[in-house]
Amino acid sequence: MVSKRRETILVLDFGSQYTQLIARRIREQKVYCEIHPFHVPLERLKDLAPKGLILSGGPASVYATDAPSIPTALFDFRIPILGICYGMQLLAHLFGGKVLPAKGREYGRAELQIDDPSDLFAGLDKTLTVWMSHGDQVLELPNDFVPIAHTDNSPYATIRHRTKPFYAVQFHPEVAHTPKGVEILKNFAFKICGVRPTWDMASFVQEAVLKIAGEVGKGRVLCALSGGVDSSVTALLVHRTIGKALTCIFVDNGLLRKGEAEQVRHTFEGLGLNLVFVDARKRFLAKLQGVTDPEEKRRIIGDEFIRVFEEEAAKLSKDAPIDFLTQGTLYPDVIESTTSDTKAAHKIK
């Protein structure tokens, strides 16, 4: 069990291509950051107890009937908020401002003139180069907001709430084309949210090990190991925690690159993992014989893997029961699974 709640900044994802880059920029400052879909329940947000929220950009328009949004009850949490691009437009819209399509889509570099060197722009020059990418813009501010920076085409390029720690920028501070963007994000994290630079990957590993130990105890754990990043990291973290109580099953389906199966076997046995190596090449190739449709191939491979894995798990259970199944998932896949509406994505997951 983790003894202390870590300071966290959350990014609510509205579909921006830069969402993961925002989180990365925050983590680079040694601040823990998570990405959640914009529709994350309020109760979940309360449980996470973030020190700050960032509303990402996105391709939608706030005036569209199906525009992604957040409940206004979120503003009662009184935690700092930074809206970026669509996140800015959404903040202005929810507080009663007017957002309309711009006369022309603004895309590319712009010169930002800082009118009020507030906390967000502390320590920065009066003129900054920033990167714009938007088709809508705020034309009328809500009564509770004031402008603190502008460009030639955007009179409200940056705004802030009069009394609450709510800020919004029309540009993208997370991209390299905004040279001082990282400094703006640092000001939001440290000066406005009040977090401290105390997180790094070493602390993540320590917390993961403690969490696994608390969950698993003396139980036996089974892991499907592919040799990829997600299952490999999972296997090594669990092995570091419980040692030989973890058993990994690697299925050679005959579809890997030349020598890859033996490389995986050599690597993980060399690291001391308890590895069951299953040569199922003939079995998989027999099932795929004559099949040409890619989706049908995908289905056959997935179904056959499950059958092989279940057979091997049943053999292992004869000696002693398996208490847990551990699975690794790449962080981008988690985001895609919670935000995607496509049927193909659900099939893959």
**Integer tally of domains:** 2
Q: C-alpha Rg, in Å?
A: 25 Å
Mean pLDDT, as a whole number? 90
Give the helix proportion (percent range). 25-40%
For the biggest sheet, the summary is: 9 strands, mixed
**Corresponding CATH superfamily of the largest domain:** Class I glutamine amidotransferase (GATase) domain
Structural class category: alpha/beta
Strand content: 15-25%
Q: Looking at the structure, what is the overall shape?
A: elongated
**Looking across the biggest beta sheet, what order are the strands in?**
2-1-3-4-9-8-7-5-6
What is the CATH architecture term of the largest domain? Answer: 3-Layer(aba) Sandwich
CATH class of the largest domain: Alpha Beta
Number of strands: 13
Oligomer: single chain
Order of helices and strands: EHEHEEHEEEEEHHEHEHEHHEHH
* Low-pLDDT residue spans: 340-349
Question: What would the CATH topology of the largest domain be?
Answer: Rossmann fold
- Tally of individual helices: 11
In short:
The protein folds into 2 domains: 8-192, Rossmann fold (3-Layer(aba) Sandwich), CATH 3.40.50; 208-348, 3-Layer(aba) Sandwich (Rossmann fold). It contains 11 helices and 13 strands.
Please describe what this structure looks like:
With 349 residues, the chain is an alpha/beta fold. It folds into two domains: 8-192, Class I glutamine amidotransferase (GATase) domain (Rossmann fold, 3-Layer(aba) Sandwich), CATH 3.40.50; 208-348, HUPs (Rossmann fold, 3-Layer(aba) Sandwich). Helices cover 36% and strands 24% of the residues. The protein is built from eleven helices and 13 strands. It has helices at residues 19-27, 42-48, 86-94, 181-192, 201-216, 229-242, 260-270, 281-288, 294-317, 331-339, 343-348; strands at residues 8-13, 32-37, 52-55, 81-84, 98-114, 127-140, 145-150, 158-161, 166-169, 221-224, 246-252, 274-279, 324-326. The strands form two sheets. A nine-stranded mixed beta sheet has the order 2-1-3-4-9-8-7-5-6, sandwiched between helices. Strands 12-11-10-13 form a four-stranded parallel beta sheet, with helices on both faces. Helix 5 packs across helix 6 (229-242). The radius of gyration is 25 Å and the shape is elongated. The two termini are 29 Å apart.
